[in-house]
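Now for our specimen.

. . .
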Amino acid sequence: MKFKGTLRTKEIQAALKKLPGAYEKNIGIAQEKTAKEILKFMRIMAPGERSGELKTEMYIQKDNNGLRISAEAAQPNKEDQIKAVAIHAGRTRGNRGTTVGIPFVGRARQLGKQKHVGRMNRALLNARKEVGLK
């Protein structure tokens, strides 16, 4: 990257080259903390079954070398996904009767969103401080 004027200093150029690595490290920590918090909220708000199967199947999924982290309500197979959607959204048709939905996934993500935004901003600021930028 070429800079004009006073921004041509070697220190700033070196700091900007280090910034993506420091940012990814801080972002990963912030995302993992948010995912754990959302998973905790989901387990609290999920309906209590006799077996407790739904709450134990919830997990944190990491994709793209840990850059994308999410809390998932069910394992990625068809039966578990159908069960989780039926509990979350409710069921209006079918031979097993109707149920009222308990929206625990969307509400948990909504509760974690505000803290997540603050964590991401702090991650950027911390990365800038680590590499020597103000």
Observations:
- The first strand starts at residue 59 and ends at 63.
- The first helix runs from residue 10 to 45.
